[in-house]
Amino acid sequence: MTTQTTEKTRTDLQATDVQATDVQATDLQTTVAKLEKAQVIEKPANTGEATTGATFEKLTCKECGTEYDAKALHVCEDVCFGPLEVSYDYELLRRTVTRETIQAGPNSIWRYRPFLPVATDNPIDVGTGMTPLVKSHRLARRLGLKNLYIKNDGVNMPTLSFKDRVVSVALTRAKELGFTTVSCASTGNLANSTAAIAAKAGLDCCVFIPSDLEAGKVLGTLIYSPTLMAVKGNYDQVNRLCSEVANTHGWGFVNINLRPYYSEGSKTLGFEVAEQLGWKLPDHIVAPLASGSLYTKIYKGFQEFIKVGLVEDKPVRFSGAQAEGCSPIAQAFREGRDFIAPVKPNTVAKSIAIGNPADGIYALELARKTNGNIESVTDSEIIEGIKLLAETEGIFTETAGGTTVAVLKKLVEEGKIDPDETTVVYITGNGLKTQEAVQSDVGQPLTIEPKLSSFEQALERSRTLERLEWQQVLV
Ligand SMILES: Cc1ncc(COP(=O)(O)O)c(C=O)c1O
Ligand SMILES: [Zn+2]
User: Fold this and answer.
1) CA 460 to CA 468: how far, in whole Å?
2) Which residue's CA is the nearest one to ligand 1's atom 6?
3) What is the per-residue pLDDT across 327-375, written as a single tens digit (0 to 9) for each?
4) Between 20 and 30 A from 160 (CA), which of 154, 351, 374, 394?
5) Cα(424)–Cα(408) distance, integer angstroms
6) CA 81 to CA 1: how far, in whole Å?
7) What is the DSSP letter of 161?
8) Mutational test site, ligand 1, from 131, 155, 189, max ligand atoms within 8 Å of CB
9) Secondary structure tally for the chain: helices H, strands E
C-alpha cells in the first residue's frame, strides 16, 4: 500500500463514525488491513457524502415521514421511533431503467440494482435470485385452480432460501458503510445466509439463533465457521438480546440496524415474478409471514415497477400464511383488530415462529387494502402441505413452504381464491433443512437382499400395502 493511499484511508477513517474506533488503533497497518478486508468504498456512505451510482436517497420514517441520511439506522430516533424505509429517485429510475437494461444485467437479483439500496457497481453477487417460476399443473388440478404458479426460492443460492436475497443486499450495504463484523437474529435460514455470504465477502460473522432449531439449520450455519450463539429462548428473546448487542458492539446486524437495506432485498421476489410472467403482475399472491417484511416488500416491488412504467397497473390481492401455533397477524386479521397482540410461539414451523412481528401491522393493512386474506393452519396441515407439494410438483419445501401451501389449499376451499385468478404461491425455503418435521410421515425404504426374488417379494407386498406400512415389509 502506498503512503498516498494510506493517507487517503486515514482521512476517510477520521470522516466516519463507524471507523472512529479504528482511528484509536495504534497500529495503522492493522487498521488498513481491516479496511482492505472490508473493501470499504472510496467514500463510505455513512459520512452522508454522495456516492456515485446511487439511485436511493434517504431513509424515510414510514409513520411520520422524517428523513434521515442513509446510515445504519432503522428507527425514527428523532421523532416517533417508527421504522425507516429506503426512498429512491423514481424520476431517475423512470428515465434510465427499461426492460432491456434489466435483461442485459446479470442472472441474479443484481439485474435490479437501481432498485436496491447500494451504491457500488460491484455488489456481493453469489448468484442469488432468478429462481424458477414454475407453472403448476398437478397441484393446480388437485386444488381446482387454472392459473397457479410456484416461485421456488427453495433452490435459491447459496443457502436455499429467500434469505439469500436480503442478506446479499444487507452485506453489500454493510461493506459500504464500513462494517467489518456482521450479525443477525435468526429463526434459522437467515443465520445460514448471513454466515455463508459473510464467508464469501470476507466479513467477520457472529449470528444468534434460538437453541432449539433443526439440525440442518444449525449445521448449515456452522459449516461456514461463524461464531454461532444458540440462545436458550425463543426468537423474540434472541431478537431483544441482539438489539442490545447492536447498541454496544457496533456490528452490522442485517435485520436490526441494517434492516431498511436488508428488507429491500425481498422486493426482488416481486420484480422477478413480474418479469417471469412476461412483465405482468399476477392477480393474487400467497406468501408466508413471520415478521411480515417479505410480504410487504413484494408489494413495494410491484408498486415500484408500476411507478417507473415497467408493468401496467392492476390490483393484486395479497394473502398471507401463518402457523396456528404462531399466528399473531392471522388472529388480528380474523378478529378485525388493527393492532397485533404478541404470542408465544409453539409450532413445527420454526422458521416463521416470530411472536412479535416487526412489520405485522403493515402486513395486516396490506391484506385488507388489497382484498386478500391472512390464514393460519395447524402443524398437521403444514406437514400435509409439505407432502402435497412434493407429491404433485416434485418440490421438497421446508415448514414455511408447507404452511404456505396449506393456506393456499384452505383459501381455495373457502372460496377465497378464484380458480381463474393468476395466483403465485411463494415457496421460500428447502425441505432438506427441516427433515425432523416430516421424518415420521414419509415411511421407510424397503430393505431387501441383493436378490431378484427378494425384490419381487417386496414389490408384491408393497403394492398391497399403504406406503406408510412399507417398513413392515421384512424380507
Ligand atoms: C423460509 C422462510 N420463509 C419466510 C420467512 C418470513 O420472513 P419475514 O420475516 O420477512 O416475514 C422466513 C423468516 O425467517 C423464512 O425463514
Ligand atoms: Zn417518525
Assistant:
1) 15
2) 290
3) 999 999 999 999 999 999 999 999 999 999 999 999 999 999 999 999 9
4) 374
5) 10
6) 43
7) B
8) 189
9) 18, 13
Q: How far is the CA of 298 from the centre of ligand 1 (A)?
A: 13
Residue ranges near ligand 2 (ion) with Cβ within 5 Å: 61, 63-64, 66, 76, 79-80, 82
pLDDT tens digits, one per residue of 127-161: 999 999 999 999 999 999 999 999 999 999 999 99
* Intra-chain end-to-end CA distance of the chain, in Å: 71
- Residue 336 contacts by C-beta under 8 Å, 6 or more apart in sequence? none
274 lines ligand 1 (CB under 6 A): no
CA atoms within 13 A on the CB side of 443: 14
pLDDT tens column, 24-78: 333 333 333 333 333 332 333 333 333 446 899 899 999 999 999 999 999 999 9
C-beta of 351 in contact with ligand 1 (< 6 A): yes
For residue 243, which phi and psi values (nearest 5 degrees)? Answer: -60, -40
The pick from 294, 322, 374 for probing ligand 1's pocket by mutation, whose C-beta has the most ligand atoms within 8 angstroms, reads 294
Q: Which atom of ligand 1 is nearest to the CA of 288?
A: 4
CA nearest to 382, candidates 440, 439, 328, 324: 324
Q: Which helix (H) or strand (E) holds 403?
A: helix 399-413
Ligand nearest to the CA of 431: 1
Is residue 232 within 8 A of residue 211, CB to CB? The reply is: yes
Helix runs in 202-292, H state only = 215-222, 235-249, 259-264, 267-276
Average pLDDT, the chain: 89
Is 293 touching ligand 1 by the criterion CB < 6 Å?
yes
Q: What is the largest CA-CA distance in the chain?
A: 80
What are the tens digits of pLDDT across the range 340-353?
A: 999 999 999 999 99
User: Which amino acid, 31?
Assistant: T
Q: What is the rounded distance in angstroms from the CA atom of residue 383 to the CA atom of residue 437?
A: 7
Give CA torsion, residues 323, 186, 430, 322, to 10 deg: 10
Of 152, 153, 163, 396, the one to substitute when testing ligand 1's pocket (max ligand atoms within 8 A of C-beta) is: 163
- Ligand 1: centre distance to CA 30 (Å): 38
- Enter the C-alpha cell of residue 136: 403448476
The answer to whether 373 touches 333, Cβ cutoff 8 Å, is yes
Q: How confident is the model at residue 461 (pLDDT cuts 50, 70, 90)?
A: confident
For the residues of 138-153, what is the DSSP string, one character each? Answer: HHHHHHT-SEEEEEEG
Distance CA 468, CA 288 (A): 29
- Three-state SS for 330? helix
Q: Is the CB of 429 under 6 A from ligand 1?
A: yes
Tell me which residue has its CA closest to atom 16 in ligand 1: 351
Cβ(320) – ligand 1 distance below 6 Å: no
